[in-house]
Write a structure and sequence with these properties.
The chain is of the alpha+beta class. The protein has 14 helices and 11 strands. Strands 2-4-9-6-8-7 form a 6-stranded mixed barrel. Strand 7 (196-201) and strand 8 form a beta hairpin. Helix 3 packs antiparallel against helix 10 and helix 10 (277-311) runs parallel beside helix 13. The longest helix has 40 residues, at 46-85.
């Protein structure tokens, strides 16, 4: 997604620089003044100017992406989890325990976000071949299936899943020996529709046909299962039932868990903060790395600007000499230089912000099914900083090109 955003940003900056300079020069060609003249001069050096804009713009995009988007991503991740998953996770509860928790939640005004049943099942064979002999290629899925996994039953497709291939069973379907497998697991194990899986459930062996494959769809909670079967299978399989659930507790309600745990010591509960501690630590580490990375990007931007100015310095000197030969002063050349760098900085800022917004849209849609809504205060502040920094640095570094004269121009000719 980041590579896609970078590609779009590059194409966008090329389009903006070429179209804005071309249209700006055509629209203002009948108008006199410094701005029309500056646009005309930039249009004559379109290739070099667009290259300069592209180099600085990519640096600005990377800086924006690391500083702004990752900041928003951490805040959105926290808000998303609280909205869909609550802040307390129950990984295993028996039927009796879950019935009590449901009644307890109603009495204490506690919100149960999700509740999904499952039973434990161990995959023994795939198409008659023992799991241990099925593949000699190590994989995460194979390692997980070597132990019992959670087998979920449902009549309708869960709202946080999407059908990838095959056909989901219908209500009242007499064929209960069919399953849907998570798409990544299907790919990892090399499974295909129609394969026969043998599961060991509560000391009994059951055969299921792979009828469909599904994938996780964000936006409706995080509890999902690798293997799912029709609810009609419950009439044929005798096994203990368990439940996974997520709960939202207010700050003052955490003390209510003590008597609940005392009543059911085997109830497996964990706060979502503990589950996401790895993500929080990773985000904190990334933020530290980004601080140093941002300095490198700023340094890279400076090098790009200085290198582009140095490469064009002789042409800039000649341009200023020609302008002064018409009777204009060095102050006029300076004003033209400022206008050029303001236009360059504006195109760079628009392209970098647009690229960051596109990257945000792609990431937020795929991970959260949300529309990315950036912090506009940050955007405006970033826009002002980019305009000021690039213009200031460009004008300062171009000061040597202003030390030209008509005499030098005549000497060269």
């Amino acid at each position: 997604m980041l590579l896609t955003a970078v590609t779009i940003t590059v194409l966008l900056m090329i389009f903006i620089s070429w179209s804005s300079l071309t249209l700006g020069e055509k629209i203002t060609q009948q108008v006199s003044g410094l701005v029309p003249f500056a646009l005309f001069m930039m249009k004559q050096r379109l290739v070099s100017k667009s290259t300069q804009i592209l180099g600085v713009g990519l640096c600005a995009f990377l800086l924006l992406f690391t500083l702004m988007l990752l900041k928003d991503l951490g805040n959105t991740m926290t808000a998303y989890q609280r909205q869909h998953d609550g802040n307390l996770f129950i990984s295993q509860a028996t039927q009796a325990q879950m019935d009590y928790v449901t009644t307890w939640a109603e009495e204490k005004d506690v919100n149960i976000r999700q509740s999904k049943p499952y039973m434990y099942a161990k995959l023994l064979k795939i198409n008659g071949t023992d799991l241990s002999e099925y593949s000699d290629k190590p994989s995460d899925s194979l390692a997980t299936f070597s132990d019992a996994i959670r087998l979920h039953w449902t009549e309708l497709m869960p709202s946080n899943n999407a059908l990838v291939s095959g056909k989901w069973w219908q209500a009242g379907d007499s064929n209960w020996q069919q399953v849907s497998i998570e798409q990544e697991v299907m790919t990892d194990l090399g499974l295909e529709l129609g394969d026969i899986l043998s599961f060991y459930i509560n000391k009994q062996s059951y055969q299921f046909t792979v009828a469909a494959s599904h994938e996780f769809k964000p936006g409706a909670g995080s509890i999902t299962f690798w293997v799912q079967m029709p609810s009609s299978a419950l009439a044929h399989i005798q096994a203990p039932h368990y439940t996974m659930a997520s709960i939202e507790l207010a700050d003052e309600q955490w003390s209510l868990l003590t008597p609940l745990w005392q009543k059911f010591p085997s109830l497996r509960m964990v706060s979502l903060k503990e589950l996401t501690s790895l993500f929080d630590r990773t985000l904190a580490m990334i933020s530290k790395v980004i601080s140093g990375f941002s300095l490198l990007i700023i340094l890279l931007s400076t090098v790009v600007i200085l290198a582009s100015i140095n490469a064009l310095q002789s042409k800039e000197k000649k341009k200023n000499s020609v302008i002064m030969s018409f009777g204009f002063s060095r102050a006029t050349c300076l004003k033209l230089n400022v206008i050029e760098w303001l236009v360059t900085a504006s195109i760079t800022a628009v392209g970098a912000i647009a690229g960051t917004y596109i990257a945000g849209l792609l990431i937020y849609q795929s991970q959260f099914s949300l529309t990315y809504q950036p912090d506009f205060t940050w955007l405006i502040a970033t826009l002002v900083i980019i305009l000021t920094s690039i213009t200031g640095l460009g004008v300062f570094a171009s000061r040597h090109s202003l030390q030209s004269s008509v005499r030098e121009l005549m000497a060269e000719n």
